[in-house]
């Protein structure tokens, strides 16, 4: 059992923010600071702030964590280069976790894919991703993360769009006589809140440094 | 139990021809005529001839079946337009079954796909096919057969090439809240010989006519 | 585009009831009657009533539809034999649709399974169902519906319990040389509301009779 | 490119032995010793002997490798405890690789499963195996190898029997919001011959010791 964490959420009324509050509550952590379109409220100084909002709130969040020396978990997507550089800068003073995907399973998939590729360097590789019909971009950001593992070779990525599928990813390795595949299926947004919980439990023990979610799961 | 069939095979030494001989033997049918690069041999007049050879043997096969009035099953692939027209012509006199794919499961998949599409006209559709790395053409002929079912809409086909996979095909239908898919996996060439067996049992009862393998499975 | 339906919902505050209200609203149908723990309210006489509540509300619902001669869609699960008999009885006077699963995809899966079984009577059959870890009963009700298709043979059903999977069902047919499978994956509860919408559009045109959701999808 | 290996095969006329001879030939290794029911023949002293035969030939094989100081790869299944003890004994003098499954992909699956379990200790686990209808034992030996990874918990294993499926294995991990699975599909016996090739290339560099196929793939 982990110790109780007093935490804050920026964007607590959003879909991800709401899931974070639920999951942290189930784990007996205490919400002491919140910020959203309806304003800011603070009961106590939090020992970690989670930002699940949008890039334009970034400046305000950075100011808050720097002035009060509070560890930061950043779950905002679509950050600019300047914002990412700023994160690196402040991470010399406070600990920061930043990722575009807090799914634990996807982290494991990336790790397993890397190991499989090292052990099966000559096997054929295929990546597949399936998402809801409303997703316009192909391939998905996560599929690109998988693709980046195979620096040395061109890999085919198949993108399927079906109904309202939250997100499936499959990496397959084909040898003569066998096929090995690693598959991840997202069934709800809750998984991302669980990943943020793990990140919070990880970061409260750090002095400073910029960490990825991979560091959280596999150690830095 | 079906009656014993006295049959002939053109191309009996090939990979498919060999499977046909095995499967017919297991079902107690009798090989009475064979033809291959090493010549021709006949013990009795066959009640059906199966051609599993190449398009350039076509002329010789047609001559044999016409002169002797023998039902024909054609499993040769890559026939020319002229050859297909010729088949139609002779089918007024003798019964002919012609198909590029004698897998029973693929026939069922085609049928089920058609029904699903009729009942789910607005759902998203995705076709996937996976074959061995040596298969150069994309998409597979069978994937094209599936694609043809959706005359009214543009359908995305994903082609994967992995190891020595004999052939997988998946058709998926995506609605808001659910995905329905129909999948066929070939595990050996034997399946085609089984389809030819069904075709033989079907054709020996016919007077004349040109039949597809769909007719054999679902009735004409 | 279908005509506007004035409808009522019993149990409109429940999870399924809420989805029904959303989906009907998107299709421009009008909620004119509702009933739940907080009481009853009626603006106009509905042309169909949908009951998404619990078996103990059954009596009250029946009374309402009989007295006012309103078509009924029953989505309550766990009805007693007496309640099912009662439904049959009232269906001589008003039209009734009753089903334990209003997923359109599952209906298609059942139909396709039946056709595949007829065409492949000798193939091996395997049924698999995967649900969330909180589901105690094995196999699922839907797996039993699939099992019932194979009256003539004993069929193995594998039940998997994983995370919070909403519900996957697979029926596989295995021949020598190939495997054909039909798979349904539920991605959200919305699918059931869509099925109830189809049932409403079906039932408002009927005079009387007891219909299953299969009748709605495939015609009676 | 590896150096040419002069090798011997016990049981070279069997199905696995035949595949071994093919795969080694493609890699330019030279068959210098063979033994089967039709007798023994030797052109040169081999630098490794591969036994793909049956347990009752074990004594003769051991005698040959000990007297001539030849590294041994044992692919025979169903060895007795005494035979396994004997292997351990002779491995102090000559190097020995022994495994019941020389599929490289299965080794990777085992490794990935172990890593996933370490990182996701609280997730639900499900194992599935599908084999041809002629396989009587449930679950498969490989499924048991997977099961052994989860020493600390009871794991459900589903066994499916379909057509002539060579062998599929799936391990799934279910968390709240996601499912991660690792799947292996065997498409031909060739895969085992490839594993034996890797074992031969590994063992010719060893002085002595008893190695598993896991050692061959992941290092000892």
What secondary-structure arrangement, pairings included, does this model have?
The structure is a homotetramer of 220-residue chains.
Chain A: E1 6-10, H1 15-26, E2 30-36, E3 39-42, E4 48-51, H2 58-68, E5 72-74, H3 81-90, E6 95-98, H4 104-119, E7 124-131, H5 141-147, E8 156-161, E9 168-175, E10 178-186, H6 190-203, E11 209-211, H7 213-218
Parallel strand pairs in A: 1-2, 1-4, 4-5, 5-6, 6-11, 7-8
Antiparallel strand pairs in A: 2-3, 7-9, 9-10
Please supply descriptive tags for the structure shown above.
220 residues; 2 domains; Dihydrodipicolinate Reductase, domain 2; 7 helices; 7-stranded mixed sheet; 4-stranded mixed sheet; homotetramer
What is the structure about, briefly put?
Helices cover 35% and strands 28% of the residues of chain A.
